[in-house]
Amino acid sequence: MSQEATAVDLSPAGELRARQSKRWRAIRESLTCYLFLVPYLTLFVVFVLIPFFWAIWLSFQEGGIMSPPVFVGLGNYAGGLTDQTFQTTILNTLRYVVTVVPAVTVLGVLIALLTNSSSLAGRSVFRAIVFFPVLASAAAIGRLWQYMLLPKYGLVNYALGFLGIPQIRWLDPGMAMNTVVMVALWGGLGFYVLVYLAAMQDVPADLLDAARVDGANSRQLVWHVTIPCIRPVLLFTSTMAIIWGFQMFDIVYVLTNGGPLYRTATIVWYIYNSAFRWDQLGKASAMGVVLLVIILVITLVQRRVFREEIQR
Predict the structure, then answer these.
(1) Cα(58)–Cα(77) distance, rounded to whole angstroms?
(2) Contact criterion met (CB below 8 Å) for 252 and 241
(3) Whole-model pTM?
């Protein structure tokens, strides 16, 4: 190759051509990236963005699915917030969240610590047993437990009777919400255990070894080394548990259908029935917006309280 062909053109025109070539190369690379994003963005716009703004528009309308909409302003919000049934569903949902979030956190950490211990025999089998319910759909879990909790012929009461324990009416008004919490924990706890286990296995071994050299026992290792190292993961899982708790629907719909006497009715159950059973689409959309605001406020408060953990 000749020296003229390999020489770099340092003239102003050559520098301009080089900058233009670099700019067009960057544009082509950006277009390629955006083309790969087109399938996701299309699904996001069609199934998330458009329904979101449509729901806000419907929240100011009155009417059902087939009837023509009539603009009522904030009437749906005022009517929904003063509706005693909706107030009951808010209290039920708060009770569910306040019970489930600490339970999945504490039990998830304890079981993850147990399965992370090298002294546990059959750790792989135990992990598989804990995670197995996560693979089933919530509807299947609800239907399974509906049959298992039958008052007379259910497997749970049969086992209690075999042990000499009086039968429990699991779906009576005073017990129904506790039963929903128990079933939800059985079905979802394995996810949190898996996340905590992965976080614990990522704790630097040097920190643990240094603590052991300083004389730390097992409890001190957990409390002063492991837990501080997995705090960001605890924040993430607690935030997701709160969001999913406020969105509880499928297990309630299949297991109790909001009963008895609305004792297990949740906000999403109320929204679903308002839209598709009671033909109040505008009211359902308004309550969906209220649910969004509740989750957004709680998430922002939680992020502000744990800001230092997020920035780690």
Answers:
(1) 11
(2) no
(3) 0.84
Residue type (1 letter), 291: L
Please determine, for residue 4, whether its predicted confidence score (pLDDT) is greater than 60.
Answer: no
Q: Is the pLDDT of residue 178 over 90?
A: yes
Question: What span, in angstroms and rounded, lies between the C-alpha atoms of 171 and 178?
Answer: 9
Query: What pLDDT does 6 receive?
Result: 47
DSSP at 224:
I
Q: Which residue has the tokens 């499928």?
A: 250
Distance CA 247, CA 271 (A): 11
Alpha-carbon gap, residue 208 to 217, rounded angstroms: 10
Alpha helix (H) residue ranges in 214-266: 218-221, 227-229, 231-246, 250-255
pLDDT in tens, 240-262: 999 999 999 999 999 999 988 89
Report the alpha-carbon distance of residue 111 to residue 97 in Å, rounded.
21
Domain limits of the chain?
3-58, 75-310
Enter the CATH code of domain 75-310: 1.10.3720.10
Residue 92: burial class (beta carbons within 10 Å; 0-12, 13-18, 19+): buried
Structure confidence at residue 2 (pLDDT)? 44
Rounded CA-CA distance 50/238 in Å is 29
